[in-house]
Amino acid sequence: xxxxxxxxxxxxxxxxxxxxxxxxxxxxxxxxxxxxxxxxxxxxxxxxxxxxxxxxxxxxxxxxxxxxxxxxxxxxxxxxxxxxxxxxxxxxxxxxxxxxxxxxxxxxxxxxxxxxxxxxxxxxxxxxxxxxxxxxxxxxxxxxxxxxxxxxxxxxxxxxxxxxxxxxxxxxxxxxxxxxxxxxxxxxxxxxxxxxxxxxxxxxxxxxxxxxxxxxxxxxxxxxxxxxxxxxxxxxxxxxxxxxxxxxxxxxxxxxxxxxxxxxxxxxxxxxxxxxxxxxxxxxxxxxxxxxxxxxxx
Length: 298
Ligand code: GLU
Description:
Number of helices: 11
Oligomer: single chain
Bound molecules: glutamic acid
Order of helices and strands: EHEHEHEHEEHEHEEEHEHEHHH
Structural class: alpha/beta
C-alpha cells in the first residue's frame, strides 16, 4: 500500500507555527515511506471567511520552508456535488434531520432544561429538531426557514455498530458516536460542514494516514462513524500534540505573532522556524519512527 498523507489548512488566515508542525508531520510520514505521497488540500468551504491571498501565501510559505507537495492541490469549494451526494445518501438512510434552531433558541433550550446536555467537549445540541414530525419539517422547509442538516448520532451509532479507529500515538480507540452530540453536517449558509467534507475528501484522495492536532481527536469519533455509514475508506490516524506558546496557550489565540509571514519579516530563516517546532515534532513522531519499517505495511 502506498502511504498518502495530507495537510489541509483553511485559507481563512495565515499559516502559523502550529500549521507548520501539522504540515511537517504529514510531509515527513510520506517522505519516510517508499513512494509516499504528500497532498495539500485547501479546506475552503467556509466561503464568507476565505480570502484569495491566503491560498497563495499558504503555498508560498510551505515552499519557502521546503515542504513540497506531490499532486495538484484540491480545493473543497470545487467539491460541493460530492458533499451533496453524501448528504443525500445519509438522508435516504434517515440518519440526518433538518435543524431550524438559531443559536439563541439552542441557548434558551439549555436554560429551559436546567442543565445543558454535555458531550466530551462541552454542551451539545439538545436534539430539539430531532423530535419534529415530517409534516412540521416540510412546512418549515416550504416556508423558506433556513436549516442545517444534523447527524442523528444515536441512530447512526446503532446502524454503524461497534467501531474503533487506530491512532499511531494513542492506540486502538473504541468509537463513541454521540461524543459530540448531533453535529452539523451541512451548515445553513454554505450547505456543507467540516465533518462531512473531511471524510468525503480523505476517502476521495485515498489518504491512508490522517495526521492532525490532538484538539481534533474527539472529531474522529464522528468521522469514523460517517466513514462506516457512507462506505468510505478507513485511514490510520495520528493526532499530534499542539504547539503551545510560553504561557502554555494554543497558538491560534495569537496566531499573527507566530505567523510564518511575521517570522520571515523579522528575519528568521526556514531552518530557525523548523527548529522552533522541533521538540513537538519529535514528540509527535517519536513512536512512529520506531515503527518506520511498518509504515508501508499499515
Ligand atoms: N481544515 C482543518 C483545520 O485546519 C483540517 C483539520 C484536519 O486535518 O482534519 O483544522
